[in-house]
Amino acid sequence: MRGIGTLINILAVILGGTLGAMIREGFNQKMRTTLLYAIGIFTLSIGFSYSFKSKNILIPLFAVLIGGIIGELIDIESALESFADNVKRILKSRDSRFSEGFIAASLLFCVGPMAILGSITDGLSGDYKILALKAVLDGFAGMALAASLGWGVVFSIITILLYQGSLTVLGFFAGNFVTKAMINEMTAAGGILIIGIGIMLLEIKRIRLANLLPSVFVAPLIVYLLQILKIKY
Question: Which ranges of the chain does DSSP label H, i.e. alpha helix?
Answer without folding.
Answer: 4-24, 29-51, 58-74, 76-91, 98-110, 113-125, 129-149, 157-174, 180-201, 215-228
